[in-house]
Design a protein that fits this description.
This protein has 262 residues and is of the alpha/beta class. It is built from ten helices and seven strands. Helix 2 links the parallel strand 1 and strand 2. Pfam families: adh_short_C2.
Amino acid sequence: MDPTPAVPAPQLFSLAGQNVLITGATRGIGAACAIALAEAGANICLVRRPGSSNDDTANAIAALGRTVKTVDADLADLDAVKGIFAQALDAMGGEIHILVNCAGIQRRSPAVQFPESDWDDVINVNLKSVWLLSQAAGQHMVPRRRGKIINFCSLLTFQGGLTVPAYAAAKGALGQLTKALANEWSKENVQVNGIAPGYIATDMNEKLLQDPVRLRQISERIPAGRWGEPRDFAGPVVFLASAASQYVCGEVLVVDGGWMGR
């Protein structure tokens, strides 16, 4: 592993000249992360669902003066996923320095009724697509001895949750995948880490936010006294994408307002 640069601390967080490939960035946490990375100086390639008309993130990045490109792909289509990294390389001039796997889906149902099709969808999007993209990134980054991979895990990387068996299984495995890749690639100067969001006010948690009983139960348990917001991930993602985290390997950074501390 290369040593951490001996520069003033603020410069450690600069992403000037870096190219980022990020999934799940058209809204919510992913959008906030993509914009934060661009604010730190990076150029961004966004993976979007085919037919998406949401250009808000791309427009915000372009307004910062950064290069922004898009690759259209459905992460549930694993054949399409296998082509994403090559398309991003072409779009970004042959170099990707940072991969952020932020996309995810949720399906809720009691375990005794959980449909097999929902299980497959959640596992494919939340785990297998991450593996395929990370493997492609490793094949690019390891020979160059330079790269960062950031996987968005969950509190259910550590806990079981309720009525979300597939999501818990995928996010638990994602935490282990993050560690496994870090074990192999840290010595090659490729840092692999994760971020585990707590309860965040986004579309994925809409059902919880609309359930007054669960909303109260969850809110009362958060030491910070509030649900998180997408912008709460701007600092953590820039940290893990930058030279400031050069010696951070195989960690899952929990951003949860203190939930896990309970």
